[in-house]
């Protein structure tokens, strides 16, 4: 949780001053806010990809912020981007959805929302005046609970005031006859879609009416509503590539702080997209041991652009904070990566062992009782697709085995929430092959398993109860390596996504023999690439050894 200490303390002091001066109600609140508005922070939450933005944004929605007396509340967060790329978990704060909810109001709904906001405003002023009276009777020496009541009631009043201002923006549009006809048509279409979906046993796409309402409105009104939402948002979440949007350039105030997640994947030039927004401070969060920026240009690589600013500052000895406590994975999962890549400094929080275990974990196979399990599929074969690879046999093995386990465990657990499963492929074409195999499963089996299929690059920053790593490759490269499995960074990402267990699937005759020969090779080699390969191959060997115990 987060609390805005500086702004809240200044607001509290200003509100107390207004009360002591004899002001009360709306006048005191508005004057205090006018005096402290410039101090109210606005955070830009950004990153190189949609997942690097949606993961922390989703956690903010779940964990929430704290108010002045440390009670949780939902902050004003707004997600800018493209609908198709935004995670389902944060669609509720997607700018066009929130704007569409306003633009799709019928006159009756508009009047109801207005009455609700007015009631909230009056109630907040009443609570403020009660707290102000206590401060006055205490001769201007407010107790901490009095200050908290002043701030929280003032904040509630301002939220109601903002809501009323937004409603005023769309008042004429909501009451226009053409708008009412369009709203009625959307309602009929939505009811028809719901009936069709119910007959077919399918889910109804959520929030489609908000999007339709947004796109049906005039462009000028769309922009005005989104701008109003942005001006009042405490947190604006968007990718680095979207930081140049005109809506951000026209904000009424500058960003107090930019938080860049997965900064180890961000090039120095990509970060420049933040600078025109007048950001006062920038916080880079990332892991230089994991995936680096993707730079395809040879000239750019020669110029050092594949080295992130985070890694560059780290090399220069710039002050940094190392987060050594991990809250995701079972201690046995991170033990070896910790020794290999982090000098053994990673510590597992006690809460990891205390969290409830999903019902799926009780499956008779006992596979989730192990940190690592290795599945050898010697009969599978890789096949080329362009410059990449896929392996149909591996995909079928993963899906058929996964489906059987998931369905059995889901049935045995009395339809408890399914285990979160992430299948990570080292090769992009294999993602498509696995998805097609999943599509062949019966609907009830698919429903029993909450499965995501991602490339290792797309999985960074994500997590799941069970991670299944599809290695795909069954033949060594001409140089004797194992392709992407030679990448310590990629293997580190894949192996540290799982909360309960990690399964490694592949042809061990290829992987295992290469691991053993590499791990016994001379440690005096000066080649950084061979050193990296030995390290990453040792991780896979470690999985094999743990699986056998």
Describe the protein's architecture and organization:
Helix content is 51%, strand content 12%. The chain has 549 residues and is an alpha/beta fold. The chain folds into two domains: 5-254 and 270-278, no CATH class; 327-548, 3-Layer(aba) Sandwich (Rossmann fold), CATH 3.40.50. It has a five-stranded parallel β-sheet, with helices on one face. Helix 15 links the parallel strand 8 and strand 9. Helix 4 packs across helix 9 (208-216) and helix 22 (508-519) packs across helix 23 (528-548). The chain is globular and about 80 Å long. The relative contact order is 0.08. Mean pLDDT is 80; it is low at 513-536.
What is the strand and helix layout of this fold?
Elements (H helix, E strand, L loop, with lengths): L4 H16 L4 H12 L6 E4 L3 H14 L1 E2 L5 E2 L3 E3 L15 H9 L3 H31 L6 H26 L1 H5 L1 H24 L7 H9 L2 H14 L2 E3 L8 H4 L7 E4 L7 H4 L9 E4 L13 H5 L6 H7 L9 E2 L4 H11 L5 E2 L1 H5 L17 E5 L6 E3 L2 E3 L1 H21 L7 E6 L2 H12 L3 H6 L1 E6 H4 L4 E7 L17 H8 L2 E9 L1 H12 L8 H21 L1
Parallel strand pairs: 1-5, 1-6, 4-5, 6-7, 8-9, 10-16, 13-14, 13-15, 15-16
Antiparallel strand pairs: 2-3, 11-12
Helix pairs in contact: 1-2, 1-6, 4-9, 4-10, 5-6, 8-9, 17-18, 21-23, 22-23
